[in-house]
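cron nightly-structures :: item 1 of 1
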Amino acid sequence: MTTPLVSIIGVPTDVGAGRCGARMGPEALRVAGIVKAIARFGAEVRDCGNLSGPSNPELPAINGFRHMPEVVAWNRSLHAAVHVELEEGRLPIILGGDHCLAIGSISAIACHCRKTGKKLQILWFDAHADFNTATLTPSGNIHGMPVACLCGHGPAELTRIGGTVPAILPHQIRQIGIRCVDAGEKRFLAEIGIEVFDMRYVDEVGMRATMEQALAGICPETHLHVSLDLDFLDPEIAPGVGTTVRGGPTYREAQLCMEMIADTGRLCSLDIVELNPALDRRNMTAELAVDLVESLFGKSILMRMHQ
């Protein structure tokens, strides 16, 4: 069995968010021990340090977008960095930063999959659908728009970062844990046809059945990307995020999600975003994130003799 080659890329910015603080996320995750945690599972981990980019100007929205030049700069930089690691056959883990960064990471991953003939599947764990546009958004915060931009709905500066528009197709992404969606966004999601497993669905069928459906169709040719927004989790266990929404998954439900992904053996890239240490309690959200990453890399309560 080959040794997994993992690259950690820190992206310390909150230019896409409504509240400052996510720029401190990468260091909080390192303090919580993310590098050692992954290495314990036999991976060779390279910490690439943090990318650099423009600071947060904390300005109001212009034409429906806040901080567009800064968001573009950070995402172009991340696109390039992720591309380099994928070309070297490594598994990139992006430490955010806010969720606008998924435009850069996923557009690079989509490019790589087109080039290598891999089948891209994205699991988007989030309390929010992040499918806003300038006309739908009440805030102009671009961390509420990455899925729309990746699907080709947004300004050219963001939709064209990967060179192909749209970067991804709706059937390539499945959203889990959603429980806060704007009215216009809800209609748009239904129109585009993105598969959304919201919290009511999880409540009705359970997390195991939800994940079985979300993981359906994964095969040896699949590049599985996980985009984990920590506000996916219930704020009782993960208070350190900028936009908490009550009624999220429990600790065990979240662990089950990660364990079932690990069982596929197909994880090829990961975003961890929206950690805001300024709002956390004793780094508990960062430590929980590391705990979930351990499960993604194979930690289980018992060595399972049968599935």
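cron nightly-structures :: done
The longest strand covers residues 222-229.
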